């Protein structure tokens, strides 16, 4: 067992202390200077081989900067792919990994107006490097979120809920009662899709891989609001659409590809759309000619990173975060099953985040307080 040493952090600053604020900031940052821990990599490769810890100094935030203490940081497949050099979005090397997380503002520059000490923030961009205990950022690189959103939910707000939200909003004008079909129904995105469909009164059909505890998984997804959960064998022969038990899906969401996606595609209604946002099987997406000619099926792709870059300051993005934050606050959205991993034991998280069997059922989150 690795022994974790907690960082020394001075008590929270009170907003009532208006005088000597600069000296307080300087004292805090000086006290932390030798205790800022981060993971970094100098070359691409398997995370377990190329990641290493470093201790870095941190300066007082400049005029437009904010100093953040990171609290939790999820480990996503995209993070692993980035470290491997396989992801299209690559930070310059050497790099600090981590695209997602929740932090607390602990100091601000003199020109920062929209953030205050004690605010909770999430990254407002990509490749900001959240796998570290503290860092300074431009204030525009951070997005303030309500404090009444749970810390775990806030830490994973940027990627999976947003991906599910946008795919349900942007491609088909769904109406209450319409059906959405997806594979990877037990994935983090898949569970968000199920819950959002319930909130918006859409019917959801989720395809999952068979497993010894399949009934336990069915019960969990049903508790989230799933209307139907089918295994890969069951999706091949299901009659739920032909029997009119559910309307034929207008929208299909695909993160698997291969034969799995082909079976899902066959159930799309005439004029339906399949959105591909992942390829966990590492197999190509094959499409029958008849689906294009006789059913007028449309195939599109979605990448949350590209959407974020194109809509960084858009009204749509602001509305999305407000709505998702409210859903989490009101317990209409729940975080997927997860495990907090001490930052100093990051190896467990990076080894399991890219599990290829699709059955681990856990999202791994780094606890930055345990270094």
UniProtKB/TrEMBL annotation:
Which reaction is recorded as catalysed by this protein?
a 2,3-saturated acyl-[ACP] + NADP(+) = a (2E)-enoyl-[ACP] + NADPH + H(+)
Which residue ranges does the record assign to the Enoyl reductase (ER) domain? 46-362
Q: What subcellular locations does the record give? A: Mitochondrion
Supply the InterPro entries for this chain.
ADH-like_C, ADH-like_N, ER, GroES-like_sf, Mito_Enoyl-ACP_Reductase, NAD(P)-bd_dom_sf
The protein's enzyme class:
oxidoreductase
Q: State what protein this is by name.
A: Enoyl-[acyl-carrier-protein] reductase, mitochondrial
Q: Which family does it belong to?
A: Belongs to the zinc-containing alcohol dehydrogenase family. Quinone oxidoreductase subfamily.
**Coiled coil located at which positions?**
none
Q: Which Enzyme Commission number(s) are on file for it?
A: 1.3.1.104
Q: Which organism is it from?
A: Xylocopa violacea
Query: Which keywords does UniProt give here?
Result: Fatty acid biosynthesis, Fatty acid metabolism, Lipid biosynthesis, Lipid metabolism, Mitochondrion, NADP, Oxidoreductase, Transit peptide
